[in-house]
Each structure stands twice: as structure tokens, then as C-alpha cells.
Specification:
The protein is of the alpha/beta class and 233 residues long. It contains four helices and nine strands, in the order E-E-E-E-E-H-E-H-E-E-H-H-E. It has one domain: Rossmann fold, CATH 3.40.50.1820. A seven-stranded mixed beta sheet has the order 1-2-3-5-4-6-7, with helices on both faces. The chain is globular and about 40 Å long.
Amino acid sequence: MTVSGGGPQVDGGAEPTESSTLSLDDGDIHVCQDSPRDAPALLLVHGSASSTRSWDPLVPMLTGSHHVIRIDLLGHGRSAKPADRSYPLPDQARRVGAALDRLGVEPAVVVGHSSGGVAATALAEQRPDLATALALIDIGPGREDDRRWRSSSAADYHAVPGAKVELLPGLGHSPMLDDPPRTATPLPAFTTSHAARSRTDGPNDGLQADRTTPYGRTGRRRTGGPDDAVRAD
């Protein structure tokens, strides 16, 4: 793997962004990083047909005390196209893990929007050492073959053994970018809390399968494996 650097960029008054390209075995991956490298890490994973730019309205509200990392998934944004033109989400998750390893990023809270939430969940299942918690925003697409991904009420989150459900009061059903401050506000405290727990308990404490969105938050399970994933509408 090789890294090529890019100069700082400033988008719409946001914090300066360090842009770089990681040369992985199956294609180049574009990465953006903001804020101090020793701050709690917050990884933002975009959805299908999107890119790191989809997070631009939120980034300035997250960079005050967090190391914000955005990755263009293969075939998106400034990353290369997959040679076979296929986009399996477990493969996207594996590449994200490889990119974080290459960057030397400490365990991060992983935020996934839309299908990026499925990739984020796959990353947490594949690499629990890298994901201390999940924040899933408007996750999709539908996965009716797996109850975790059905569009359903909060009661169905109990399909995940050991999960607990907590709905955040006063949060309504509005798209992420309709009200960026409302989406961004819960994330810094959520990240700091789980980063502190990770330093205390270590990465093997278990996956924090949480949801912090305009819609609510789901709770925690301490054992690894696919049942740790939860669905957020």
C-alpha cells in the first residue's frame, strides 16, 4: 500500500481538510481527515451513489474535539472503480478497515448513512478492534431476508438478543441533511463517551451497536458476531 498526500482544502468555511489517496491491493481509496489526530476518532461512511462530500454540512460541527475521517468507498467520489464493477458491502467494509490500518487510526466510533450503515455494521462485525460503537443514520437499503434490517417499529430492535432500546426524546423523522445541526449534535458526546470506555475496557469489550440519529438510538451488546447489528429506519 502507498499513500499520496494532498494539500489542505477548505470547503464552505469548514475546518481545513487533509486529503490523501491510499493505494490498496484492489484500488485507490480517497480519504479526508479533519482536526487533531490525537482526538477521539469519528469515521463517517457515506451511502450508495454518494461520497465524502455528502458529509460536508456536518463536518464543521464535529471537528471541534474529534478526529473526523471520511472515506470514499471504492467506486465512489475520488476513489477508483472496482475492476469487476461489483460493490459487495462486506468488501467495502474490508477496504475501510485496511484504510484505517494504513492510517494508523485508533479504534473509532463508526457512523454510517443509508447503505453506508450496512458497510459500517459489516466493518464492526469483521473488525471489532476498530469499531468501538456504531451510529446508524437512515440506514438502508431494505434487507427483508434479515430481520435486523427491516423497516419496523422500535420494538423489533429486540430481535437482536441482548440489545436494549432507547429513543432520544424530541427527535423527528427528517432527512439527515435537512437539519445538519440536529443530526450532528448527539454525535460528539456519543463519540467521547465510547472512546473513553474503549480506553478503559479495551477493544475486546464488545461492539457498541448504537444508533444516534434524528430518529433515536439503540443500545449495547457485549458479545461479538452478527447479532450485534441493529437496524435504524
